[in-house]
Amino acid sequence: MGNDPSYTNQKFKVIGSRVQRPDGVDKVTGRARYGADYNAPGQLVGLFLRSPHAHARILKISTSRAEKLSGVKAIITSADLPDLTNGDNAARDILENCMARGRALYDGHAVAAVAAVDEQTAKKALKLIKVTYEVLPHVTDVDEAMKPEAPVIHEDMYTAGIEPRPTKPSNLYNVAEFGHGDVEAGFAEADLIVEKSYKTEQTHQGYIEPHACVASVNPDGTGELWVTTQGHFTYRSVCASLLGMDIAKLKVTSSEIGGGFGGKTHVWIEPITLALSRKANRPVKAVMSREEVFRASGPTSSTSIDIKIGAKKDGTVTAAFAALRYQGGAFRGAIPGMPWAMIGAMTSFACYNLANVKSVGYDVVVNRPKVAAYRAPSAPMIAFAVESTMDMVAKELGMDPVDFRIRNAAREGTRACYGPVYGPIGIGATLEAVKNHPHMRARLKKNQGRGMACGFWFNFGGQTCTDLNIATDGSVTLTVGTIDVGGSRASLSLIAAEELGIPYEQVKAHIADTGSLGHNDTTEGSRGTFSSGMAAIFAARQAIGVLRERAAIMWNIPVEDVAWEAGSAKAIGSKHRKLKPLSLAEIAAASPTTGGPIAGHNESVPDNAGVSFASHICDVEVDPETGGTRVIRYTVVQDAGKAIHPTYVEGQMQGGAAQGIGWALNEEYIYGEDGRLQNPGFLDYRIPVCSDLPFIDTQILEIPNPNHPYGVRGVGETSIVPPLAAIGNAISNAVGVRMNHVPMSPPRILKALEQLDAT
Amino acid sequence: MPLVKVSYMSSLRSALGGAESLEIEATTLRQLMSKLLAKYPRLQKHLDEGIALAVNGEIYRDNWDVEIREGTEVYLMPRIQGG
After folding, report:
1. What is the pLDDT of residues A358-408, one digit of tens each?
2. Which of A95, A165, A316, B56 is the most exposed place for a label (fewest CB within 10 A)?
């Protein structure tokens, strides 16, 4: 007990039940307030002027005509934003991404912003701002950007991670290598070697709610920000540091979030909106249009990948190699020390037990928007390449693809491709579950095919701070600082109820503003329920300690003689047998006269959220006339740890699969020769809707995380990793073409079918 | 004091003297990192960019008060985040 995070294998009373979601009524009745639903008295409208060029030097910005327009209250350019980043390259990249400094680095890069009394005036003002550009050569393709003749985007960028340090700048900003053993010896040992190259196009998280905020900065230097975000404490720190404010003087309140998936872990319009408010001395509201979201928030990398896998005739993989080239947009990785290809390299062969493995990640800048995290960032693309090649090897060997993977699956004691040795893990269990799943035995028709693939993601914990307060009627408020992106308020309420021994309905979870709790890390890395859940357990246990003390006062007995059982204080020992148990509500009602409010609190840094594995099965039907592919059946099997609220866990597994299906079949940033994005809207950038998808079946494997009292591990990201490859493998089995370019859209499949016919 | 095997990703190799791994005596991750930094000051740059520590496969990004025992393998890896 106490604050020991070790798994205890306890019997649960409310954990695991499918209770009603606390935010459901508000959301379906329209009461829930999202970022754009906040308003402040006297607020102005903030709009952004964005570069129409992929790469251009900004020679001059003339704002004089706009400033004279009646109703314009403030205009911001980079001249209004002194560089306060003190040599912190990552912070300087954020500042420059929020507002171009001397050069526009991608189509959509903000060059100025206006605050005016209404939208019409703000739009007029944007038209009156004259920007003089010198258009520069651009590059948007990751392979083109690595060529010697490519325009160099940053003259001060020298490749890190290789020695000796290059003498010339280039667009290759980092090289990272992982692996062990001797891959050349491993390939020499192989009876069969398969090599294949792949490309995946850039996709967006596709969250329905655009970025939106209301900023208000007062003359005394204090400020408030109401915003849609996955991490309001992080937004506070970043905005305050960029604008020279004291962190504690900026209060950030998060709204309900209409999807984030990693895209709302980074700031975009928020620092500039605060700057507009500071300059105008009025609150300013800014809401991105959908076009702005596509052009100027943070999509995922487009990639180019080479895979080489060698195996013995018995199915043992003897060596595996991957070269990953990922573009990060116009800047280095979004997080310092976290380039995108490097993460891809780390996850590349994580599902497998390999004696000889090597993965090299090449991170590249191009003239595209700054890449942000997207659900298990960097993993789906490399999984597409690895899992497609694994299927090809299995086919060449004449082995069942599931058996081939089971033979090579990582297990406890395996050295992971990213370095450490695994403890207990669940990839083998997911593969066995796939092998035995009825889906694998269902009949297929003409032009239909079945594929499967595996996926891996790390999961993380992080800084967490939680309060639990008991009202005098016995109802409980749980105050957390991790944004609820996937149902954590329900899960955390269940956890608090379990610990206190009370009904779920007696607990209400809230997301606090940044002035009400200590720092909480952003909800990313599938950490919300893991981290705040652990903090909720410990806060509840602390509150139970207080409840026992208060019961002891009420009974006038030593606290050591008071136990907490099933939501009540019980006096233990024969001398107290006449004392009837005191319920939580009875103790709470007496609290004003026994010492005041009853509360628990916890601040902690939970780690070991537990790595997670998934194996997916997918059936598709391909129309050979159109190249159109329809997913007709889909099953997700995931090692999810203890499912606190199984419906939400299933929802995470289904949501990740749905996003992966869209990525696999349709979604794609399309750039023209001019370096401008051609499809910045949901009409031309097509995410799947309900009618595009079958019901996605799920199987939760509750393999407990040994480092959480309830066995919880991160859930939300792994399920987006396998779909690209599962669908690619299914298409191959349906119509005999091996797709190596995502999305596997109708034109690409038609072309592949035509090439197949020609051979 | 337990003798700990420290392994790391290849990009840290030059900052840690060039070997593939090393051994160091430490009772906690914090003590281990303190000793490493004292001996290999070039590690600081990588620490600033973000390093996580895997202890027998379990990843610690922030909690460096973890006790380590004789025979433990500590692996230095990037401090990555998710979506």
Report:
1. 999 999 999 999 999 999 999 999 999 999 999 999 999 999 999 999 999
2. A165
Instruction: Please give the Cα distance from B31 to A637 (Å, whole number).
Output: 41
* A contacts of B62 (beta carbons < 8 Å): 461-463, 605, 607
Contact between B77 and A416 using a beta-carbon 8 Å cutoff: no
Pairing label, strands A223-227, A250-254: parallel
Strand ranges for A248-311 from DSSP E = 250-254, 284-287, 303-311
- The number of CA neighbours under 13 Å toward the Cβ of A647 is 8
**Chain B residues touching residue A175 (CB < 8 angstroms):** 11
Instruction: Tell me whether residues B9 and A177 touch, CB distance under 8 A.
Output: yes
- Residue A675's nearest CA partner among A135, A146, A140 is A140
Distance between alpha carbon A15 and the CA centroid of its chain, in Å? 25
| B8 contacts in chain A (CB < 8 Å) | 419
Nearest CA in chain A to B74: A420
| Facing residue for A419 by CB, picked from B7, B63, B83 | B7
DSSP-derived 3-state class of residue A590? coil
- Pseudo-torsion of CA A65, A66, A69, A74, nearest 10°? -140
- ipTM of the prediction: 0.93
8 Å CB contact of A420 and B79:
no
Residue A337 has its nearest CB partner, among B7, B60, B78, at B78
A551-608 pLDDT tens trace:
999 999 999 999 999 999 999 999 999 999 999 999 999 999 999 999 999 999 998 8
Residue A200 structure tokens: 């995946």
* Residues recorded for chain A: 759
pTM strictly above 0.90: yes
Q: Are A678 and A577 within 8 A, CB to CB?
A: no
